[in-house]
What we know:
Blueprint: E1 12-20, E2 25-32, E3 38-45, E4 49-54, E5 60-68, E6 73-77, E7 80-82, H1 90-102, E8 104-116, E9 125-136, E10 152-157, H2 158-166, H3 173-187, E11 195-196
Parallel strand pairs: 4-9
Antiparallel strand pairs: 1-2, 2-3, 4-7, 5-6, 5-10, 8-9, 8-11
Amino acid sequence: MTIKDTSEEWEIRATDTPFTGNKTSVRTDDVVMPDGSVVRRDYQVHPGSVAVLALDAQDRVLLINQYRHPVRHKLWEIPAGLLDVPGENPLHAAQRELYEEAHVKAEDWRVLTDVYTTPGGCDEAVRVFLARDLSEAEGARFEAEHEEIDMEHARVPVDELVRRVLAGDLHNNCLVVGVLSLVAARAGDGLDALRPADAPWPARPFAS
């Protein structure tokens, strides 16, 4: 048995989109089960996202603190954002988000991990990048709005983040997955063995 996720699509007898929002929508599919029964499944249709675990020379991760209304929390997170343009190169989107949210640029980029955030109810796919060799970006700072107006920034050592994740103090999925993946990669073949930044991403195909 090969332990690897595989692409598969079951027959859909009917589909409807009862809600369409600014960036996402809700879809209802009537899906044929293996026994022939038909079951209705509702899920959020999402354009996909990128996130950036930016690691500085002092082995600290760049974090932002932002209000998230659905969970009524201010969460510590890593820079992230939507793939607003269909087919957008995820590396370009990640570089944009790092600039806009932290006014930082990076010279070394790798793919840290790819995840589906909530596959039982949403088709969002996220590519988490590792960014190293950081420096302050040039030019004017991005003008923040909405939840980003009072955004805080911090740089936190990797070891402390791991402790806080395991203690239940941090909950953002990209931060949790990113930090633990970083530690696992170091314990395995090393960070330089990670996939290149332009590695294929079947969940969200893109142009080079």
